[in-house]
Amino acid sequence: MGSIEFEHEAENNSISVINQPLDPEEFRRQGHLVIDFIADYYKNVEKYPVRSQVEPGYLCKRLPESAPYNPEPIETILQDVQQHIVPGITHWQSPNYFAYYPNSGSTASFLGEMLCSGFNVVGFNWISSPAATELENIVMDWLGEMLELPKSFLFSGNGGGVIQGTTCEAILCTLTAARDQTLRKIGTENIGKLVVYGSDQTHSALQKAAHIAGIDAKNFRAVKTSKSSSFCLSAEALQATINSDIEDGLIPLFLCATIGTTGIAAVDPLQPLCEVTKRYGIWVHIDAAYAGSACICPEFRHFLDGIENADSFSFNAHKWFFTTLDCCCLWVKNPSALIKSLSTNPEYLRNKASDTKKVVDYKDWQITLSRRFRALKLWLLLRSYGVGNLRNFLRSHVKMAKVFEELVRSDKRFEVAAPRNFSMVCFKVSASSSLLKHENDDNEKEKKSNEVTETLLEKINASGKACMTHAVVGGMYVIRVSIGASLTEEKHVVGTWKVIQQHLDAILSS
């Protein structure tokens, strides 16, 4: 480019700059517009199709092929958000969203996220922002006390908590710590003998973590569960699997027990499982990603009985605890095990505070170096609502799940497919229903039941009136209705049930 052309472009560029990247008054003006936009979105979210109705590749047909050279006003951008982005959103915060597990939110959490983004600190060690570290220490102990975790998991004991991004990270970090702790005793050349255990209902994050951590794929155990045991991992099945591995010269390393499995919210029995694992020095991690939130209520705390014998525990506050993604709370009894596996100490990060060993450097408790000021939104949440209100919010969702469960039971065409422990109901078109009376063989009835149930789910989601997801357990295709969106009320649950019935009527009549 010639000098005249460059000067011309520079002159045009200076004319087109409407504000600096971080101008306080312009931020104030634009911020008000964005807050109003989001508030209106929530006011109207129920009017949108719950699951996005767009086709793959829709957005590239609507947006320009390249970025604009000159700036555009926020008003124009927000118009495009409404016109082009909103149609491509599956509305997780809709009161008619019952898919996967909830990703609930709250005003307090949104505002905490704003503060986090506004300060935009990078809290990899204590000195980089002392408040980010120390508030996380405090909030994690607050939460641990609400859950009645043993003192050994808290900073006020000899343990401690850290906010990870997701359960996937929590499992990988603890599995890595367990691996290294064992290899220091038996030698790194024996990594090929290490075995990781879960059930066939355990989240796929465990298998992924085992792969990343270098565990031989042949040494990953998904122990079979059955309908007779409500798809929980039994101590007897775990013991038998361990016995077989030991006979083969392998070394049991890690067990992931689940409180609220992904498919049907089954609960693994911690006490009996830990009695097995303690014989072999197996690291026990408890994944309570969804159901851990409910355990702040005294009536659900018994699901954590036996946790005192585990090594680590995590739950996702961004699921059913009214906190925006991402916020996975992980506690460990032995932080030094994490630190030995995950710490790096380059010269450019050295400082006097870290050298004293009297501060927490969270970079050594996680996979990444950089980290956000995540504790702010939890702090605002706890202070804005209080423990009592949070318990009542959770109880209201459980109450709605009970209402839905009774509606399912009242229609003989359906059956509840698994015990309801929390706020999720799994149901299916009944194989014993008179609808399938033309089928003579039980296997054929079950197969037909699965087909009709799957078709029913597809029709409901395509309608945009509600959104649900499925699971396959024990050969059954089941629809999962997970109640936990912050805006959901009983009228939405009852209305969704009517949608389900209407679509089944339509399937049968066709």
Task: Please state how the strands of the largest beta sheet are arranged side by side.
Answer: 1-7-6-5-4-2-3
Distance between the termini: 68 Å
Radius of gyration: 26 Å
Mean pLDDT: 93
Helical content stands at: 40-55%
Spans of at least 5 consecutive residues whose pLDDT stays below 50 are none
Q: How many H/I helical runs?
A: 15
The run of helices and strands is HHHHHEHEHEHEHEEHEHHHEEHEEH
Q: Quick one: overall form?
A: globular
Task: Outline the biggest β-sheet.
Answer: 7 strands, mixed
Summing up helix and strand content along with how strands pair, one would put the structural category as: alpha/beta
Q: How many strands in all?
A: 11
Strand portion: 5-15%
Q: Could you explain the architecture of this structure?
A:
The protein has 510 residues and is an alpha/beta fold. Helices cover 43% and strands 12% of the residues. The chain is built from 15 helices and eleven strands. It has helices at residues 3-16, 24-44, 74-85, 107-119, 130-146, 167-186, 205-212, 235-247, 270-277, 317-320, 335-342, 352-355, 375-409, 442-463, 490-509; strands at 160-164, 194-199, 220-223, 251-258, 283-287, 312-316, 328-332, 414-416, 424-429, 469-473, 476-482. The strands form two sheets. A seven-stranded mixed beta sheet has the order 1-7-6-5-4-2-3, with helices on both faces. The protein has a four-stranded antiparallel beta sheet with strand order 8-9-11-10. A hairpin with a 2-residue loop joins strand 10 and strand 11. Helix 6 packs across helix 7, helix 6 (167-186) crosses helix 11 and helix 13 packs across helix 15 (490-509). The termini are far apart. The model has no long low-confidence stretch (mean pLDDT 93).
